[in-house]
């Protein structure tokens, strides 16, 4: 079966009946599917055009093998912070709440590894060396504070662990700048609060950043925009309140698609959009056919790098500018199918190691495969330039490099027969997304808000949604938030249009 003939629903191309209520949604990622679902709930007739042969977009669960026992790994989104209400609400509405499980994250398994200046250490033994290194770093950069009695052990522990987290999570271009902001601003603010209630661990040498920041929100107010813009993601990614869907995150887009009455047409790539006064004209490539399609309204959820590749007509200059201006952050994941979950022998039950180098982060997914079918390891997760560098290599070279580097920490990978398969996605190379997510870190709140306003802004009958059009870019939450906003905008447009049409009917000469 060729790609173009793969249709998610058995529906053939339908003829829309009610004029003024035909909507085409471009993209079957989470934002496109939620847009379609919400529009159908409001009585619109919707169809979704998806360029690839898979629904879910950047929610991409890979299964090593077939059948329910095949171990799975997330090559796209993998966790949901507990405060992401839209995402959790959709999981509940789709009947998936029973599949929610805790996601064990970076630095939370005491036996996982952390790369430090002293080499690879287990997290449980890293506190002392991290604090020593941080003290030395402080003395290098803030010698005048060497004898400052406020620089007590608690503050050093705070700075040491936050630096470790920044090193593990931030893209390389931001890492050094964030370390500087941390030294110059954050320590002085933290020195003013009592860290006692936030110290954790048997030696009380770790600071619970989540409880500290929520007890003292004023600390955030004193940080630079650059540091602040990244703290949300740092806190989210290391939160103890992260969730995942047992069996794979793709259950969510599949469930939403399964609730749609209209078709989701896979292998239907939109290559052109022309916005006219009374309709939107789409050029669609389906297999070897190119068809023209007219819609009353269109919601485009394709990421902007994919939209830039389309032939665009009828869009104003500001929209064309913002389409070019929104930057995307590369992200690369490399996953390994192992004969067995050897890391469990070493006491690692889950979570992730910060392995640094070119591998950066290594996650140990919860075992959900059947016994005898092996185990999945997310060997490497990189973002920014490091992801782009891995992306530029051939898949074969990328996989070799990751296995070689990671085997320094996990020599079991070199045992004959241990590695059954390796897969990867360099999202920066994927034409359908052009990156892992819209890149807003390091930008001021005002700049982000302005970019977001312009990205979302409809052009006549053409509306926009997708994580890049949301306040939670880089998250599923953002995709859903943008979909709900787009649906509201479509409703407003339609109501205004109907009122205008009714007025015309009463006064065809336009004398009103
Ligand atoms: C590596 C990685 C890790 C992530 N981790 C997390 C995480 O842990 N938690 C979290 O919440 N979020 C995470 N995210 C972000 C999350 O995956 C995205 O924010 C969300 O899935 C975006 O949804 P979307 O619908 O806006 O875009 P997409 O999912 O990209 O959907 C857009 C769709 O449009 C289609 N399309 C593009 N061009 C065309 C065209 N010309 N014609 C037709 N169709 C087209 C694409 O194929 C795609 O299916 C991660 C993302 C990546 C890449």
Automatic annotation (TrEMBL):
Keywords: Oxidoreductase. GO terms for molecular function: L-amino-acid oxidase activity. Residues 30-490 form the Amine oxidase domain. It comes from the Bacteria. SUPFAM superfamilies: FAD-linked reductases, C-terminal domain, FAD/NAD(P)-binding domain. The keyword Oxidoreductase applies. InterPro entries: Amino_oxidase (IPR002937), FAD/NAD-bd_sf (IPR036188), Flavin_amine_oxidase (IPR001613), Flavin_monoamine_oxidase (IPR050281). FAD binds at residues 31, 76-79, 270, 467. The keyword Protein biosynthesis does not apply. Its cofactor is FAD. Coiled coil: none annotated. Substrate binds at residue 79. This is FAD-dependent oxidoreductase. It comes from Streptomyces triculaminicus.
């Amino acid at each position: 079966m060729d790609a173009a003939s793969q249709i998610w629903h058995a529906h053939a191309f339908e003829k829309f009946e009610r004029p003024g209520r035909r909507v085409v949604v471009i993209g079957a990622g989470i934002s496109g599917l939620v847009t379609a679902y919400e529009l159908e709930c409001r009585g619109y007739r919707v169809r979704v055009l998806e360029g690839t042969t898979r629904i879910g977009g950047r929610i991409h669960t890979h299964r090593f093998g077939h059948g329910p026992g095949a171990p799975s790994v997330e090559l796209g989104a993998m966790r949901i912070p507990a405060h992401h209400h839209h995402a959790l609400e959709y999981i509940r509405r789709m009947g998936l709440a029973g599949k929610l499980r805790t996601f064990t994250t970076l630095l939370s398994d005491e036996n996982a590894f952390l790369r430090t200046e002293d080499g690879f250490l287990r997290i449980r033994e890293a506190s002392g060396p991290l604090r020593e290194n941080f003290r030395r770093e402080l003395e290098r950069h803030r010698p005048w504070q060497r004898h400052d009695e406020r620089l007590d052990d608690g503050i050093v522990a705070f700075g040491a662990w936050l630096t470790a987290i920044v090193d593990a999570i931030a893209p390389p271009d931001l890492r050094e700048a964030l370390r500087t902001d941390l030294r110059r601003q954050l320590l002085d603010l933290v020195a003013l609060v009592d860290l006692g209630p936030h110290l954790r661990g048997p030696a009380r040498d770790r600071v619970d950043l989540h409880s500290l920041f929520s007890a003292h929100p004023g600390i955030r107010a004193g940080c630079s925009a650059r540091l602040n813009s990244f703290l949300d993601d740092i806190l989210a990614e290391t939160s103890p309140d992260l969730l995942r869907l047992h069996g794979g995150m793709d259950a969510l887009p599949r469930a939403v698609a399964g609730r749609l009455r209209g078709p989701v047409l896979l292998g239907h790539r939109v290559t052109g959009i022309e916005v006219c006064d009374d309709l939107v004209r789409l050029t669609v490539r389906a297999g070897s056919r190119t068809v023209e399609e007219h819609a009353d309204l269109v919601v485009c959820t394709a990421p902007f790098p994919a939209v830039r590749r389309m032939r665009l007509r009828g869009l104003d200059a500001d929209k064309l500018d913002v389409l070019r201006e929104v930057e995307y952050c590369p992200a690369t994941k490399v996953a390994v199918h192992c004969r067995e979950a050897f890391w469990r022998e070493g006491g690692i039950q889950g979570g992730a190691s910060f392995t640094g180098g070119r591998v950066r982060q290594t996650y140990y997914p919860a075992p959900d495969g059947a016994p005898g079918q092996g185990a999945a390891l997310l060997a490497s997760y990189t973002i920014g330039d490091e992801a782009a560098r891995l992306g530029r290599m051939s898949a074969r070279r990328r996989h070799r490099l990751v296995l070689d580097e990671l085997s320094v920490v996990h020599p079991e990978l070199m045992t004959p027969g241990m590695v059954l398969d390796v897969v990867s996605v360099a999202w920066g190379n994927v034409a359908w997304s052009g990156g892992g997510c819209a890149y807003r870190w390091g930008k001021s709140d005002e700049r982000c808000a302005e970019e977001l306003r312009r990205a979302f802004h409809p052009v006549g009958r053409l509306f926009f949604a997708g994580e890049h059009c949301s306040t939670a870019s880089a998250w599923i939450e953002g995709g859903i938030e943008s979909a709900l906003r787009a649906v509201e905008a479509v409703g407003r447009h339609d109501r205004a249009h109907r009122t205008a049409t009714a007025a015309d009917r009463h006064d065809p000469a336009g004398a009103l």
